[in-house]
Specification:
The relative contact order is 0.15. The mean pLDDT is 91. The radius of gyration is 16 Å and the shape is globular. The chain has one domain (9-191): Aminopeptidase (3-Layer(aba) Sandwich), CATH 3.40.630.30. Helices cover 32% and strands 26% of the residues. The chain has five helices and eight strands; from the N terminus they run ββααββαβαβαββ. The protein has a five-stranded antiparallel β-sheet, with helices on both faces.
């Protein structure tokens, strides 16, 4: 049986398509191997060999995306440039998706998460991608709420969530850190 993929999402500057096995190597080299991108990913700190780091990235990201897709239909989207960015169309800019959360699913709902390659950071692309993913998620999954977690010192990511009008609830311990914040958003009236 062949899996039917959803249509791509298009924003003013991005093309979002379902993240697949074929995206893993570009994700690994542009994101996982970049210490700046991985600053707030606690599990990747320390002295991991390339093989250990690669295996952890497959488990923590690719396999997590696949599990959420199989269990709930959640989609993680690979971010590629649209024509307005004037970048090679096959550039890998990161990912954004609705994921199975680390926090209790019934209480918090699924998690909005994203990671941008260094070349995509500081351009408003995380906000643009996340807004498209959330708009799609409200209708695709009929969600009552979405949450996101972020490291307290990750001011850029906190600004993304605030621009999306997510509400700060407060501190939470998750992903191996006690210095995290949880944000949430109820289904918007126009999406209900």
């Amino acid at each position: 049986m062949r899996l039917t993929l959803p249509p791509d999402l298009v924003t003013p500057r991005l093309l979002l398509r379902p993240f697949g096995e074929d995206d893993f190597e570009r994700f690994y080299t542009t994101c996982i191997l970049d210490p700046q991108v991985m600053t707030f990913f606690h599990a990747f700190r320390g002295s991991l060999t390339d093989a250990e780091q690669r295996a952890r990235a497959r488990r923590d990201f690719l396999e997590h995306f696949i599990m959420g897709s199989q269990r709930y239909g959640y989609i993680c989207w690979a971010l590629t440039p649209g024509p307005a960015l004037h970048l090679p169309p096959d550039s890998f800019l990161g990912w954004c998706g609705i994921l199975t959360p680390a926090l209790d699913h019934d209480t918090w709902g699924p998690e909005l998460a994203y990671m941008l390659a260094r070349q995509a950071q500081g351009r408003g692309l995380a906000t643009e991608a996340a807004a498209a993913v959330m708009a799609d998620g409200w209708t695709r999954y009929s969600l009552p709420r979405i949450h996101a977690v972020v490291d307290t010192p990750n001011l850029a990511s906190r600004r993304v969530l605030e621009r999306l009008q997510m509400r700060l609830l407060g501190p939470v311990e998750v992903y191996g850190s006690t210095d995290m914040l949880v944000y949430t958003m109820e289904v918007p009236v126009d999406a209900a």
